[in-house]
Amino acid sequence: MNTSSNNQRSQQPPIIGISGTFASGKDTLSKFLSEHYGYFVESSGDLVRRLSMARHGSIERPDLRETAEYYRKTFGPRFLIDTQIKHYNEQKQNFSGLIIHGLRALGEAKAVKEAGGVLIFVDAPIEERYQRMLSRKRDQEVKLSLEEFKRAEALEWHGGDTDSDFNLAGIKQAADIVLENNGSLESFLSEAVNRLKLPPAGQNA
């Protein structure tokens, strides 16, 4: 890698935390930043799924919520984030930084910012997100009606005022960058790159 590329990499945020509403584009943004900027991606959702399978033998959304709440309230609101940062640190020499996506509790967002990270919140109109959820066919989500989808989201929008509670509203308010994914994929990713002050994709290799 040349000096210019090293300088560009050194200016990237070392940690990016990505939160947002259901099916808003968090995974898409994480994958893009990983592929084009060398980030290692840790998914809070994947970690909770593994813990939920061990705890309940299920990854249905109510079990996922219970599992996340159990670990946050038993081991502290930073438990998931600290676990993911520890995993990253074991292999950080191979990557330019860490992305943690799927933050749901305000304490997780605070942990990312305290670690020197940038916090992004992604949103989009709920009807568009519902259709995206149906198309990705994950975790039995295709069985949810639009009204059930809205009720499930409401439980995570503001579940309480402690750092361990689900609180998407609080995370959005605390975010350094809020992205509205309501246009083309290209414009969404371009805005993310611009807001993060990254070089255009393809110019940082």
From TrEMBL:
Gene3D superfamilies: P-loop containing nucleotide triphosphate hydrolases. InterPro entries: P-loop_NTPase. This is Dephospho-CoA kinase. It comes from Candidatus Chaera renei.
